């Protein structure tokens, strides 16, 4: 069984294991869950095939890249010896139909180009690849040296040197594609794109699934779901946000136009066909959604970033507490605008769980953000 080295991003360490497991579950790939934790960001895994690794890299946000691991060593003398003992592994790459390059990727320490060139030349001198051409831009086979330095030691001690064949990058580029700066329609509380994609992986978003965000806002959580193939919808109680009207949350942009809408967001990313539009509705009213004839739910996924009061107030339909100076109408008008009342955080999260229990299909997934106040930060 081939061994692979995964290099993870050093951000969002708490999500490292859960996201990796979710992606493996999505593709029905098994791995040793005990190996992964939030303290390390380089891991060696055994997988049945290269295809499994390529599938994982096609979805994960927190894996930077992976290589098929040939060998490793504590220093370059030992590394050269180990590579030379197993030169037969390069036979399948040594033909005129393939190209190759050698790259050095230091982790934890910067290296100048002269040093990198010396490492590349020292390995390239004896690799049996005389029949294939060198391609420094788009090589079919990129043989990669990874230098892993211990950043906790003052003199940047070299922990390990890994050598193998580069497989691919993860999907970190999606956070650039979906950056908020270039998005047509955003709000004050639009979720960070990287976190939105991590959440999409946790709920196993995939083609053919139906997903909803009961607090859809400007659509920050459902855009990644659509990118991964889900049909998406949502509810929003704020009329202006639901209709994409009013003043822009961007400084100096003024009033929103037809170019600043939910639709414009999906059109920009080429996922408009997955957008089922959304409802101006109260998320606490679960009977809004009709169940299947057998009583099963209709949604495969529910995602939410509820307005828990820190950046956005929670609101639901209900009667406000009357104040003495209010003048009430003497008759009921034909055109009635429902009143809104406070939506306390405890009730809100219970309603989300109740909605999931009622409206999710069997094995459907719910993922929502919850405010946590660490004891060491409360003062």
What does this structure look like?
With 379 residues, the chain is of the alpha/beta class. It has 2 domains: 3-169, VC0802-like, CATH 3.30.2130.30; 174-320 and 336-377, Vaccinia Virus protein VP39 (Rossmann fold). The chain is built from 10 helices and 14 strands. It has helices at 16-26, 50-57, 76-85, 113-124, 174-177, 193-202, 222-227, 239-243, 262-268, 345-359, and strands spanning 3-8, 42-46, 63-73, 99-107, 133-134, 141-150, 157-169, 210-213, 231-236, 279-280, 299-304, 315-317, 340-342, 360-368. It has a 7-stranded mixed sheet. Helix 1 packs across helix 6. The protein is elongated and about 90 Å long. The model has no long low-confidence stretch (mean pLDDT 91).
Offer a quick outline of the entry.
This protein has helices spanning 16-26, 50-57, 76-85, 113-124, 174-177, 193-202, 222-227, 239-243, 262-268, 345-359, and strands at residues 3-8, 42-46, 63-73, 99-107, 133-134, 141-150, 157-169, 210-213, 231-236, 279-280, 299-304, 315-317, 340-342, 360-368. It has 379 residues and is of the alpha/beta class.
Question: What's the topology here?
Answer:
Blueprint lengths: L2 E6 L7 H11 L15 E5 L3 H8 L5 E11 L2 H10 L13 E9 L5 H12 L8 E2 L6 E10 L6 E13 L4 H4 L15 H10 L7 E4 L8 H6 L3 E6 L2 H5 L18 H7 L10 E2 L18 E6 L10 E3 L22 E3 L2 H15 E9 L11
Organism: Strongyloides stercoralis
GO cellular component, one term: cytoplasm
GO molecular function, one term: methyltransferase activity
